[in-house]
Amino acid sequence: MTVEPSQIADEGSVAFAQSETLEAVHELELTYLGPQSVLSGLKASFKDLDVAERKVLGSQMNAARQKLEAAAQGRREELESAARAAQLATEGVDLSESLGKAKLGHSHVITQTWERLEDVFCSMGFTVADGPEVETDWFNFEALNLPPAHPARSLWDTLYLDSSQLEGLGQEQLLLRTHTSPVQIRSMLRAVRDNSGPPIYVVCPGRVYRRDTADATHLPVFHQIEGLVIDRGITMGDLAGTIESFVKAYFGENMTSRLRPSYFPFTEPSAEFDISAADGSWLEVGGCGMVHPNVLKAGGLDPEEWSGFAFGFGIDRLAKIRYGVEDLREFVTNDVRFLSQF
Ligand code: DAH
C-alpha cells in the first residue's frame, strides 16, 4: 500500500485547519472526501486484498473519513461564527443610540411650570390643596367678602351656569370659578372640619375661567396658583418674606420682588407683587395681602385668634415671563414647533 488512510486523514486535517474561507473548506472536502479523492481511490485496491485485509483497510478508511469530516465540520463552524461576528461588528445597530434619537413627548410647558411651582412651595413647607372648577357664587365671591352686587365683582368677568336645568341643586348660583381664591375658603373649612388646622399652609394650583376674548395677554381659560397661610401672629413681613423666597427659588438668586399697595376685597391691607426684570423695570406677577377678617369668619375661624396672608397669581403669565413668550395664545394653539422648545 502506498498511502495510509491515517496519513491522508492527518494531512487533510491540517489542510482544513489552515483553510481561510468556507469556499476553501468546500474545495478541500472535494479533494479529501469526494469520489475523486485519494481516500475513495483506495477502494480500488480492495480487489487485491483478502477478506481480513479488506476489513482492516475498510475500518482504517472509515476512521480516516470520520476524522476528515469532523475536521471539515469543525473548521466550517469556526469560519461561520467568525463571519457572524464580523457581520455584527459592521452592521450592528446600537439600540441605545436609536433611543436617544426617538422623539419622545413631554409635559406641556404649563404643566411643567405648575409642577415646578408645587415643588418650590412644597420645599418651603406648603402642602397642595384642591377645589372644584364649577363653584358656587358663595365660595367664589360671597365668602371672599364680595357680597351680591358688590362693585368689585366686575373685576371678574364671570361665566355663570344655568343651574335651573340641573335637578337637585337647590337655589345655588353655579359658575366657573374666576380665580383659585375659593380654595382658601374650602381649605379653612376642611381644616376646621377635620380638626387638622390651623395652622394652614397650602398652595392651590388650578384652572380658572373668565368671560374674556383671547388676546396676547388674556385667555378665557387659564391657570392660577393660590397661597394661604393661617397661623398665630402672622404679619405682612411674613408675606413679603415668603414672596421674596419664592421669587428667588423660582427665578434665581439675582431676582427680587416688591409689594405695591392695591385693593382686593378678600385682603386688608392688599398689595400687588412685582418681580425685577433684567433691564431694571418691574413686572407685575400677582396679588396678595393679609386675609380679611370676614374671610376668616367665612372659613369658620376666629379673627381674634388667627391671622394670615394670601396670594394668587397666574401660572401662564409666570411661564410667559420666565420663557419670554410674547403671546399667551401660543400656550394653547398646540403648535409642536412652539411646544417642543420646552
Ligand atoms: N384672586 C385674585 C385674582 O384672581 C388674585 C389674588 C389677589 C389672590 C390677592 C389672593 C390675594 O389670594 O390675596 O385676581
State the helicity in percent bands: 40-55%
Find the count of extended strands (DSSP E, 2+ residues): 10
**What would you call the shape?**
rod-shaped
Strand order of the main beta sheet, please? 1-5-6-10-9-8-7
Question: How far from one another are the termini?
Answer: 88 Å
Number of domains: 2
CATH superfamily of the largest domain, please?
A: Bira Bifunctional Protein, Domain 2
The CATH architecture of the largest domain:
2-Layer Sandwich
Averaged pLDDT, please?
92
- Largest sheet, strands/sense/barrel: 7 strands, mixed
CATH fold-level name of the largest domain: BirA Bifunctional Protein, domain 2
Describe the structure.
The protein has two domains: 5-91; 109-339, Bira Bifunctional Protein, Domain 2 (BirA Bifunctional Protein, domain 2, 2-Layer Sandwich), CATH 3.30.930.10. The chain contains twelve helices and ten strands. It has helices spanning 5-18, 22-33, 38-41, 51-91, 95-101, 109-123, 137-140, 182-194, 236-251, 293-298, 315-323, 336-339; strands spanning 127-128, 134-136, 160-161, 174-176, 200-209, 221-231, 257-264, 267-276, 282-291, 307-314. Strands 1-5-6-10-9-8-7 form a seven-stranded mixed beta sheet. A three-stranded antiparallel beta sheet has the order 2-4-3. β8 and β9 (282-291) form a beta hairpin. α2 runs antiparallel to α4 (51-91) and α6 crosses α11 (315-323). The protein is rod-shaped, with a radius of gyration of 43 Å. It binds 3,4-dihydroxyphenylalanine. Residues 179, 181, 226, 264, 267, 287-289, 310-312 line the site of 3,4-dihydroxyphenylalanine (DAH). This is Phenylalanine--tRNA ligase alpha subunit. It catalyses: tRNA(Phe) + L-phenylalanine + ATP = L-phenylalanyl-tRNA(Phe) + AMP + diphosphate + H(+). Residues 117-341 form the Aminoacyl-transfer RNA synthetases class-II family profile domain.
